[in-house]
Automatic annotation (TrEMBL):
It catalyses: tRNA(His) + L-histidine + ATP = L-histidyl-tRNA(His) + AMP + diphosphate + H(+). Homodimer. GO terms for cellular component: cytoplasm. This is Histidine--tRNA ligase. Residues 1-316 form the Aminoacyl-transfer RNA synthetases class-II family profile domain. GO terms for biological process: histidyl-tRNA aminoacylation. HAMAP family: His_tRNA_synth. L-histidine binds at residues 83-85, 113, 127, 131, 259, 263-264. Its EC number is 6.1.1.21. PANTHER family: HISTIDINE--TRNA LIGASE, MITOCHONDRIAL-RELATED, HISTIDYL-TRNA SYNTHETASE. Keywords: Aminoacyl-tRNA synthetase, ATP-binding, Cytoplasm, Ligase, Nucleotide-binding, Protein biosynthesis. Its main location: cytoplasm.
Length: 427
């Protein structure tokens, strides 16, 4: 026998039992974002490597060590997208949708990062992202966060996630802070973890969210980001908080929250949960007013967030929050005996599908004896089984069996949709 080829490490198949949960989540998100007027945008999975180098930032973890980069046959450097914002900006700007316009966009799809696979962390994972362009004021920051809170509420997750909020200010404020932070930390360099020591030169802000205890202890007496924020930044941040409060969205201010991507400024936020171990962030985002220009477009403010679908599915499963109706199920199973009944049953099945929206009708295919077919009906979990033999066809009827009670009665084929509908409503 030939050796079986396995999937690539960290890249998962979403099997039938899981895909219905994914669809439930995706459909819920689609409904919520639509109610805020966000439109879907789709862009390729592969882009020029430079897009992410320039967009995400050369010294970020993503670009330094997580990208899937390869040369195509022409020697051009391409990268499997590690995130969606840079691609979204590239696509929208290329189509002339950004400058001097307002856009509310969302996307969904696979992202690729070469990370160590573990629960909630994969090499191919999926995000749903939401981005708003052309609006610089804090009410947009609030809109996006309120939108996400509405989504958690709809999914039953609101009480299981916490909103952490921070502002990292304007580029000039960050530069001044970075200088003060580096000056302070250099003195304690040998007490910092290895990553943080490296970041002291490459990306000092990221040291703030180091998970290392000794590093965090050193940070306790470090200069505070907050003290470097100017009037405009503070006013923006206060306005955001006021709108969130007016809309009953609770938040925690975390002055050490910085994001792993270079394009953020002013508002940053994360929704975190206690239920997923160290893969705690289910949704993260912030404002990126400089990104469009950085990627060669005309200056356009932007803000967005991305949520990790795998982590949200894990969370819904862990908390047993998947509604029965979201699980794949069969409503009606059709059993037929004899050649004529088989043909009639195909027509019957089509009639039910036409007339009863949302009802799942499964026909047993390939004939076989009654006992075997009924076994299949039982295993299908169907609520009703329709039984059709030669005798029934001749009389223009079919047997309808309630699989829970075992009750069986005959029903006119001409009236079958009505009959099935009534019985499905009853149980
Ligand atoms: P983390 O700190 O967990 O590595 P991140 O800051 O790299 O997250 P973002 O780039 O902000 O994550 O992506 C947004 C969301 O996408 C994360 O909050 C998470 O839910 C999800 N995500 C990111 N990387 C992965 C991954 N490798 N596997 C699964 N989900 C991921
Ligand atoms: Mg990461």
């Amino acid at each position: 026998m030939a050796r079986k080829i396995q999937a690539i490490r960290g890249m998962n198949d979403i099997l039938p039992g899981q895909s219905s949960i994914w669809q439930y989540l995706e459909n819920t998100v689609a409904d919520v974002v639509k109610s805020y007027g966000y439109q879907q945008i789709r862009f390729p999975i592969v882009e020029n490597t430079d897009l992410f180098k320039r967009g995400v930032g050369e010294t970020t973890d993503i670009v330094e060590k997580e990208m899937y980069t390869f040369e195509d046959r022409n020697g051009e450097s391409l990268t499997l997208r590690p995130e969606g914002t840079a691609s979204c900006v590239r696509a929208a700007d290329q189509a002339g949708l950004l400058f001097n316009q307002v856009q509310r966009l969302w996307y969904t799809g696979p992202m690729f990062r070469y990370e160590r696979p573990q629960k909630g962390r994969y090499r191919q994972f999926h995000q749903i992202g939401v981005e708003a362009f052309g609006m610089a004021s804090a009410d947009v920051d609030a809109e996006l966060i309120i939108l996400s809170a509405r989504l958690w509420k709809k999914l039953g997750l609101l009480e299981h996630v916490e909103l952490q909020l921070n502002t990292i200010g304007l580029a000039s404020e960050r530069e001044a802070y970075k200088a003060a932070l580096v000056e302070y930390l250099t003195e304690f360099k040998d007490q910092l973890d290895e990553d943080s020591q490296r970041r002291l030169e490459s990306n000092p802000l990221r040291i703030l969210d180091s998970k290392d205890k000794a590093t965090q202890a050193v940070l306790n007496d470090a200069p505070s980001l907050e003290d470097f924020m100017g009037e405009e930044t503070s006013a923006h941040f206060n306005r955001l908080q006021a709108i969130l409060t007016a809309n009953d969205v609770p938040f925690v201010i975390n002055h050490r929250l910085v994001r792993g991507l270079d394009y953020y400024g002013k508002t940053v936020f994360e929704w975190v949960t206690e239920h997923l171990g160290s893969q705690a962030t289910v949704c993260a985002g912030g404002r990126y007013d400089g990104l469009v220009e950085q990627l060669g477009g005309k200056a356009t403010p932007g803000i967005g967030f991305a949520m990790g679908i795998e982590r949200l599915v894990l969370l819904l499963e862990t908390l047993e929050l998947i509604p029965e109706a979201a699980k794949a199920s069969t409503d009606v199973f059709i059993v037929s005996l004899g050649e004529e009944a088989e043909i009639t049953s195909t027509v019957l099945a089509e009639t039910l599908r036409s007339q009863l929206a949302g009802v799942t009708v499964l026909r047993h295919c390939g004939g076989g004896n009654f006992k075997n077919q009924m076994k299949k009906a039982n295993n299908s979990g169907a609520r009703l089984t329709l039984i059709l033999g030669q005798e029934e066809v001749e009389q223009g009827i079919c047997q309808v069996k309630d699989m829970q009670t075992g009750d069986q009665e005959s029903c006119k084929i001409a009236d079958i949709a009505n009959c099935v509908n009534t019985k499905l409503q009853l149980n």
